[in-house]
Amino acid sequence: MELFGGAFKNMEKVLDFYALRHNLLSANIANAETPNYRAFDLVFKEQLKKVFSDKNLPLLLTNSRHISSKPKDIYEIKPVLVATSPLTLGLDGNFVDIDYQMSQLAQNTLEYQALVQMLIRKIAILRYAINEGRR
């Protein structure tokens, strides 16, 4: 039996994506002065939207070799590592735009914290139900 319809498992997986992206963005920032360093980013939000969107009807798969138009489950999502294109290229061939990387890191942190707050609220609801149920 899954509590909250699997919400905890889904939130755990999304938090893992944000943690991976945080490490990658931190590595980019740490190498901002490394000559010829190429900055990378992790892309997974579009795939998340496909999993959680109900607007599109799924394609009928009649053969095991058919490829689905969207992942069926959040655990099928594979984050994609992409090289970021810099706004300005450093003289030493470094591809890290420190302002862009810092803004992406701040956004990633905010999204992570928002998801943690949602998780805390779900746990509070569960705790309330347990405590109030015995009265």
Structure description:
It is a single chain. By secondary structure, the chain is mostly helical. It has helices at 7-30, 45-52, 98-133, and strands spanning 40-43, 80-83.
Side by side, the strands of the main sheet go 1-2
- The value of Rg in angstroms is 20 Å
State the order of secondary-structure elements, H for helix, E for strand: HEHEH
Structural class by sheet pairing and helices: mainly alpha
Number of helices: 3
Please state the average pLDDT score: 84
Identify the overall geometry: flat
Low-pLDDT runs of 5+ residues are none
Largest sheet: 2 strands, antiparallel
Roughly how much helix do the residues carry, as a percent range? 40-55%
Quantity of strands, as a count: 2
Relative strand content = 5-15%
- Give the distance, in angstroms, between the N- and C-terminal Cα atoms: 25 Å
What is the compact description of this entry?
With 135 residues, the protein is mostly helical. Helix content is 50%, strand content 6%.
Provide the fold topology.
Elements lengths: L6 H24 L9 E4 L1 H8 L27 E4 L14 H36 L2
Antiparallel strand pairs: 1-2
Keywords:
mainly alpha, 50% helix, 135 residues, single chain, flat, two-stranded antiparallel sheet
